[in-house]
Amino acid sequence: MKVQKIKKNLTSEMVIEEILKNLKSGDLKPGDKLPTEREMSQMLGVGRSSIREAVKGLVLMGYLEASQGKGTFVRNDVADRTLSYANLQNVMVVDNIFDLMELRKIIECNAVGLAATRASTEDMDRIIQALDQMKACRQDIKKFYTPDFNFHMAIADATHNKMICEIMRLIVEKAHDQYDKFIPDQLCPPEQAIQTAEQIVASLKKGEGQNATRYMQAHLSLVEIELNRVLSNETSIHTKNSILKEGKQNAIV
Fold first, then answer.
1. Rounded to the nearest 5 degrees, what angle is found at the Cα of 126, between the Cα atoms of 122 and 129?
2. pLDDT for position 95
3. Domain check: are 100 and 197 in the same one?
4. Once rounded to an integer, what is the mean pLDDT over residues 162-178?
5. What does the DSSP 8-state code read for residue 33?
6. Same domain, yes or no, for 123 and 190?
7. Among 2, 238, 175, 216, which residue's Cα sits nearest to residue 208?
């Protein structure tokens, strides 16, 4: 890997530029292992936090892949991706997803509990219809987002609280916009989302607010699980704080 020391402001965006330059020139090839975080920090003359954030972004965009205990590698299919730095500027928002998921849990887990006590027959029909549409689109993640959005909004409508509906619409739209900047098929597993959605619906039918809340929390945690898996090849759930704490102690590369 050929690099030039970064002498200006030490930013992750500059690190991304250096890595992309090596990918375009062929100095980094599919299957190659990146130097360790410590080595890259010394090579580029930047702080390890800048290396860490740059690698996170490149992993999420599908240029690199992290293997727990082994290191970070150039993906074998990297040649099929457009090496555009402009597209990567939106990737440095990993923390935003965790913030959004935290907010979604606060709002939606309470909303679904309220919906369990207020949902009318018509409300339940709309919720079930949205779930059926999710199942029909399970093979196409791009199409899957629309019925998934409708599912959450149908639950919001079932609270019969206009403010909850307005807030949830903003949150869910923002969340989907953020997911789409990454590798959506890896961040939102349709089969698991459908399974937890079915559990939510079953609880709503019975008016079981506590169970509906529990299943909604599991439903919303799926993105966190997958985000951590993509970043570090781990399957356990981490909260935002634990991820940031771990990031200060351990190298991703």
1. 135
2. 60
3. yes
4. 90
5. B
6. yes
7. 216
The pair of three-digit structure tokens given for residue 67, joined into one six-digit string: 């293997």
Verify that 86 and 169 share a domain, yes or no.
no
User: Which of the four pLDDT bands, split at 50, 70 and 90, describes residue 90?
Assistant: low
Average pLDDT, rounded, for the chain:
81
56 Cβ contact list (under 8 Å, min separation 6) = 91, 94, 231, 252
Residues 18 and 70 in one domain: yes
Q: State the CATH number of the domain containing residue 227.
A: 1.20.120.530
pLDDT bucket at 238, cuts 50 / 70 / 90: very low
In a domain, 16, yes or no: yes
- Rounded CA-CA distance 216/227 in Å is 18
Q: How many CA atoms lie less than 13 Å away from 74 in the CB half-sphere?
A: 21
Q: Which of 33, 18, 29, 19 is nearest to 67 (CA)?
A: 33
One-letter amino acid at 155 equals I
